[in-house]
Amino acid sequence: MRTTGVALFPHAPTSVALARRRLRSELIDAGVSEAAVDDANLIVSELLSNALRHARPLPSGKIRLAWGRRADGMIEVAVSDGGASTEPRCGPSTLSSLGGRGLGIVESLAARWGVRHDHGATTVWALVEAPPAGAGARMAPPVAHAGVAEFADLPDLDDGSWDAPSTRAFPA
């Protein structure tokens, strides 16, 4: 990956929002489609949240976010921390679990993801398919004039007239 951006953030929850804003701005400026930017941002949110919750900071006391466009057009995002006592892995979660879905989300959005260890740092990386903006990219529909139903107009879901969605474990 040719790194186009690197930022160090405090090992604190406020860093997640700061990192998302920075990444979004730079990817949009680079001409990446909004859908790919959204996917990359959600992945970064999950990876940073995991680093903050489960890992130590880097020796500098920070966590590192790096991103760039690869020769194949994919965007690579990578979060580095000081490591933890366990290896990041996608595990099963139950409907009643309070957590444990983050890497499942990453796995469903990323083309690939993985973990590498370099010089005392653990880096979790993910690849996002990223067509250029306007090149047949999936764009979010406009919502400015969307109608909102009145509460009384909504169907009664307890009357048995709807099909309950099937449950499926992550990843699909």
Automatic annotation (TrEMBL):
* Domain Histidine kinase/HSP90-like ATPase as annotated: residue spans: 9-125
Q: Which domain of life is it from?
A: Bacteria
The record's section on InterPro entries has:
Anti-sigma-factor_SerPK, HATPase_C_sf, HATPase_dom
Looking up CDD domains in the UniProt record yields:
HATPase_RsbW-like
What keywords does the record list, in alphabetical order? Kinase, Serine/threonine-protein kinase, Transferase
Task: Provide any one GO MF term from the record.
Answer: protein serine/threonine kinase activity
Q: Which Pfam families would you find in this protein's record?
A: HATPase_c_2
PANTHER family for the chain: ANTI-SIGMA-F FACTOR RSBW, ANTI-SIGMA-F FACTOR RSBW-RELATED
Question: What name does UniProt use for this protein?
Answer: Histidine kinase-, DNA gyrase B-, and HSP90-like ATPase
